[in-house]
């Protein structure tokens, strides 16, 4: 059991999960806003031995050094790799601090989002119609840049709807190829696809000026990644230079610190994470609690 467990910011746990936390700590503190800086994070953690955070704050080596009581950090957000994490996992490992993250809790909402937005483009609902007449997903040439869990789910949804699906990934995916999806090198995929979905890990920049040239004109680009998959200037030039459209669910996926691209006439951003659904919060809560139970079981062994 933790002596003190602190959620330094809103962590999206459902009410039942918040109640269950009290079974695992003598004291539980839940903060309802995002801390402004490291000093505030340090103040909130204090002498706690367990810490929870979401994707909106960072725990770096400075925070760890000022809070020597920390033994466990639970990330209530996606953990793809040490390098992309918002916790200094390398420091934690060197000093015996356990860091646990979660994955794959909001993917179904993302699939629903892309189908919804794509149909609106193809039929001209509440936006300019992509072609002169409404078209179906059937026969659409779809390219997947990234075939992780969400990318694979989007690819299967597109295939089910009759699209011609090709993909680019760091490794070949025989299971998907057996379902009729075709592997292509990135440049070839961009050239031959009419609609491209970027489904990449956080902090992976895949598309630069040359890639946008390969993508060409008359295309639709989706980014379902947590962050941008490109440089904002290259995206802007592509949008300004042709009859192209870009869609994403959050402003962070645009990667424009000025905020100007959010208002670009060819950018369609709902500005709300498609993965933040009732079901996703429930699954997130289950995974966060599982990590805590697993840690306490091992810690007490």
UniProtKB/TrEMBL annotation:
Outline the extent of the D-isomer specific 2-hydroxyacid dehydrogenase NAD-binding domain.
132-272
Q: Which residues form the D-isomer specific 2-hydroxyacid dehydrogenase catalytic domain?
A: 15-298
Q: Does the keyword Oxidoreductase apply?
A: yes
Q: Which Gene3D superfamilies match?
A: NAD(P)-binding Rossmann-like Domain
Q: What keywords appear on the UniProt entry?
A: NAD, Oxidoreductase
Report the InterPro entries cross-referenced here: D-iso_2-hydroxyacid_DH_PdxB, D-isomer_2_OHA_DH_cat_dom, D-isomer_DH_NAD-bd, NAD(P)-bd_dom_sf
Return the Pfam families for the record: 2-Hacid_dh (PF00389), 2-Hacid_dh_C (PF02826)
**What's a single GO MF annotation on this record?**
oxidoreductase activity, acting on the CH-OH group of donors, NAD or NADP as acceptor
Q: Return the PANTHER family for the record.
A: D-ISOMER SPECIFIC 2-HYDROXYACID DEHYDROGENASE CATALYTIC DOMAIN-CONTAINING PROTEIN-RELATED, D-ISOMER SPECIFIC 2-HYDROXYACID DEHYDROGENASE FAMILY PROTEIN (AFU_ORTHOLOGUE AFUA_1G13630)
Family membership, please give it: Belongs to the D-isomer specific 2-hydroxyacid dehydrogenase family.
Q: What is this protein called?
A: Dihydrofolate reductase
Source species: Hungatella hathewayi
Q: What is the lineage of its organism?
A: Bacteria, Bacillati, Bacillota, Clostridia, Lachnospirales
């Amino acid at each position: 059991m933790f002596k003190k467990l602190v959620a330094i910011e809103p962590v999206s746990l459902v009410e039942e999960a918040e109640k269950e936390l009290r079974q695992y700590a003598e004291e539980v503190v839940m903060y309802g806003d995002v801390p402004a800086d490291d000093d505030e994070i340090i103040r909130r953690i204090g002498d706690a031995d367990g810490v929870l955070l979401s994707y909106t704050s960072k725990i770096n080596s400075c925070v760890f050094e000022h809070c020597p009581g920390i033994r466990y950090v639970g990330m209530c957000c996606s953990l793809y790799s040490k390098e992309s994490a918002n916790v200094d996992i390398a420091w934690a490992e060197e000093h015996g601090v356990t860091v646990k993250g979660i994955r794959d809790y909001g993917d179904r909402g993302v699939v629903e989002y892309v189908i919804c937005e794509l149909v609106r483009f193809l039929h001209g609902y509440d936006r300019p119609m992509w072609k002169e007449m409404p078209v179906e997903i059937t026969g659409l040439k779809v390219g997947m840049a990234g075939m992780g869990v969400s990318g694979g789910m989007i690819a299967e949804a597109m295939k089910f709807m009759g699209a011609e699906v090709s993909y680019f990934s760091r490794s070949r995916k025989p299971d998907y190829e057996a379902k009729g999806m075709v592997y292509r090198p990135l440049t070839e995929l961009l050239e031959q696809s009419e609609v491209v979905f970027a489904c990449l890990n956080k902090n992976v920049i895949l598309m630069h000026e040359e890639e946008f040239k390969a993508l060409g004109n008359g295309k639709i680009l989706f980014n379902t990644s947590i962050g941008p998959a490109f440089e904002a200037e290259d995206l802007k030039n592509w949008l300004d230079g042709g009859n192209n459209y870009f869609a994403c669910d959050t402003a962070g996926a645009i990667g424009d610190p000025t905020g100007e691209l959010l208002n670009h006439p060819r950018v369609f951003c709902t500005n709300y994470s498609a993965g933040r659904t009732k079901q996703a919060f429930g699954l997130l809560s289950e995974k966060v609690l599982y990590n805590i139970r697993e840690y306490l079981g091992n810690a007490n062994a």
